[in-house]
Every structure is written in structure tokens, then in C-alpha cells.
Amino acid sequence: MLAYTYIKHGTFQMMEKPVPEIKDPRDAVVRVTLGSICTSDLHIKHGSVPRAVPGITVGHEMVGIVEQVGEKVTSVKPGDRVTVNVETFCGECFFCRHGYVNNCEDEQGGWALGCRIDGGQAEYVRVPYADQGLNRIPEGVSDEQALFVGDILATGFWAARISEISSDDTVLIIGAGPTGICTLLCTMLKHPRRIVVCEKSEERIRFVHEHYPEVIVVRPEECVEQIRKLSSHGGADVVIEVAGAEDTFRLAWECARPNAIVTIVALYDRPQQLPLPDMYGKNLTFKTGGVDGCDCAEILRLIAEGKIDTTPLITHRFPLDKIEEAYRIFENRQDGVIKVAITEKTM
Questions:
Q1: 290 partner at 20 to 30 Å CA-CA among 49, 189, 242, 245?
Q2: What is the dihedral of CA 13, 15, 19, 20, to 10 degrees?
């Protein structure tokens, strides 16, 4: 089968690999019908994910059809259409029982697919702990509607959930990339008083204005001033940092009012400073870390009910055998790209 593979720092390459097989009775093998490229794939390519293993098939955003299941898998069967969770988790350890599935104690726990074990930018993928890692797609929900459930939409849902958003809040979301838009959609479900998005890209600003006209958009250079004008207590009640740019961590806490919650979703290329003397007295609560992707069934229900729609994010479509061109466009942010859908290979 075709499999897009991490060769070394800076190099991905299409390769022929064997179709994966069941290794553990809790595994499933899924035929990938639609995938995508994530910014985290670019982080692997650029050397920002030290855990990534050369030789693995990349890709962790995908949906597909179950081809085979191990004897202990009970939640799905061959022929089921499923979403694939970005995280591998056993469902039984201390962290899984408490909902912190990103910290699963299994040796393959956390972000494994497309990082430490073969992922889904391929024709087939083996999914460990399939009862936890796969969710059946409801009737009437298309592959494109479900594509982001297991990764960026789960991230946005998690970020909104842990940010403790109330109806009286002003919420600032920094970054209107794909994960930022998913976070925006999930924040809108909380019905806060006001949502402000900070973004510098003219194309992404136009995207927000077109699809979410009720949302206020500000540019980074005016963000601190504008958020203070829009807020009652000197800053946003909740700040969700999704951009991961050079100055956005500092911008996040500067825009927060005293005693606010600052949720860090972004993955940074380099360490960030926590200048405690500068923020002394703000009494901020920081929430950080990777997504706990344990809400996929709830997200799929909301999609089926028409309450979440991420299909406008898909601006480009390429077959698997043309994925290098898809990466070129996505990595260089060309042609107004937001997200690329990777379809099955051309015949």
C-alpha cells in the first residue's frame, strides 16, 4: 500500500509498505477513506517533535471503514464507518479513568498514531485499543463532516470545556487557523457574552467575517488595547491561545484580566518564558497541554444535530498519490488554504 513516511528531519517520502495486520486482540485495521494534513505533521517534519520515530507513516486526522478487528474488540465491526482518535488510550489506567487520556500510561498511550507508530496518510492504518480509538459515524454524517472529530475538533471541544466559559464572559481566541476555528465553534456552543478572535492573516480574517459575522476580529498589534475596551474588568475573562507564534504566549496573558483563565492549546517550536515578576498580582490560572480526546461521541452527536459544521475549513482536496503537492500548498499557506482533505488514491 502507499504510505507517506517520515524519513529524517526535513524529509517525508511516499513509500510502499505492507498492509498492516492485527498485532493485539484489541486492535482494528481501518481502510482510510479520507484524511488530512495537520500542522503537527509539519512540526514532525521540522524536528519539533523529538518523540517522532523515523520510518513511521505520518498522519493522525482520518476517517475510514473498519476492515478487520481483534477478538477483544466489541464497539465496532468490519464495515462500520468510523472516526479515528488522534490519541491511543487504554481506558483503564489512572489517567484514563479520570478523563486525562492524553496521559495514558500504556507504552503507546497519548499521541502515537503518525508519531511513534504508523499513522493514516496511507491506504490502511492499524488502530490500537480500537474500542477507545474508534467512534462510529452516525447515519447522515459524511466523511467530510466527520474528518476533524478525532483531532482538531476534539482539541477545540476540550479547550472550550476546560476553560470554564460562562454566559457572562468575554472570550479571546488567539489564532484563526484550523484549530482556532474549531475552538471558536466549540466556544460558540457555550454562548458567552462576547467572542473576540485575534488573527493577522487577511485571508483568515475574511474567513471569520464571512462565516461567523457575530465574532469580533482584531489584529495582534491592536489586541491588548481592543480587548481592554471590550471588557469590563481590564481584560478577557478567558483567553485560549491556539496560534503558537513567537509572541502569542505573552499576548495571551497580557490580554487576560486578573484572575482569568488562560488555556494554552498551541504547540510551540521553542520554549516560552513565564515572566512571573511582570504578571505578579494578576493571579492567573493557566491550563496547558495536549488534547484529551475523550469527547468524540458527543462531538459526532452535535454534528449529526447540525450544531457543529467544520466542512467550510476544507478548501482543497487531493488524492493520496498527490499528497506531496498537498503538503506544498498547506505548508506554504498558498491559494487560501485552510485544510486539505486527502482522498483515496487515484486508480
A1: 189
A2: -40
**3-state SS, residue 13:** strand
Contacts of 102 (CB under 8 A, 6+ apart): 87, 89, 95, 110, 111, 289, 290, 291, 292, 293
2-151+292-343: what fold? Quinone Oxidoreductase; Chain A, domain 1 (3.90.180)
Domain 154-288 CATH superfamily: NAD(P)-binding Rossmann-like Domain (3.40.50.720)
Q: Which of 206, 193, 290, 276 minimizes the C-alpha distance to 236?
A: 193
CA–CA separation, 155 and 62 (whole Å): 15
Q: Tens digit of pLDDT for each residue in 100-119?
A: 999 999 998 999 999 999 99
Measured distance CA(139)–CA(278) in Å, rounded: 53
Distance CA 154, CA 152 (A): 5
Q: All 3 cell numbers of residue 260?
A: 482569568
Cell numbers 473576540: residue = 196
Residues of the chain within CATH 3.40.50.720 domain(s) are 154-288
User: Does residue 110 contact residue 290 with C-beta atoms inside 8 Å?
Assistant: yes
Model confidence pTM above 0.85: yes
For residue 177, how far is the Cα from the chain centroid? 11
Please tell me what DSSP assigns to residue 98: T
Tell me how far apart the alpha carbons of residues 14 and 289 are, in angstroms, rounded to a whole number.
Answer: 31
- Rg (C-alpha) for the chain, rounded Å, is 20
* Measured distance CA(100)–CA(293) in Å, rounded: 9
Q: Are 57 and 119 in contact (CB under 8 A)?
A: yes
pLDDT per residue as tens digits for the range 274-291: 898 888 889 999 999 778
Q: Write down the pLDDT at residue 292.
A: 87
Residue 262 burial (CB < 10 Å; 0-12/13-18/19+)? buried
